[in-house]
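Record 1 of the preview.
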Amino acid sequence: MKKIALVLLCLGLFFGCKDQGIDSQSFSSGNEVSLETQQLSQDMDKKSYEGLEDIFKDTSLIETNNKYLLMIFGKNNCKYCDKLKDEIKRSNRVKEYIKENFSAYYVNISYDKKHHLAFIDKKEIKQADVATSQLADGIYKVFSTPTIIFGDKDGKTIFEIPGYVPEERFYKTLEFIVSNKWQKGRSDKERLKILQDFIEGK
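->
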């Protein structure tokens, strides 16, 4: 909770949608599900980032490709998720910066699909096959949407921001990650203070 308060203090007031979890009743289980139905289930989330397919990669395989990691957890009917995606769509500089420097993923927690993590995440897992619910609840502890995860080139979490971030602050945060200035901070608190100074041009 202290970590979240620090993020909110550092970056200002943010808005997000409370996570209601994944509706597991919407999905079948068992061997009777056809391969075609399974594939449709795996692809349902792609509509979530329609128009941003050049930015966000298919979350079936989540890897860094020797770039920084950017993961945005969102869900259906989350107005702040939609606002963040709309701002990314409208800003060529944000889109180009993400494409050049980040392996970016939009994970819609309204659907439960299978993901293969091909990097070392904050729990020191080297390789893992996980469901969306495990990724959001078990690994990243997502409690509101959007939640933005920034990771290094090994996939280790640098820090996370629960809530919507306006375009200018979002862009400055992307620059901050690429600058590697966050490495000077030994704790979340120190990193967030360095980020605040970076955003304010200190």
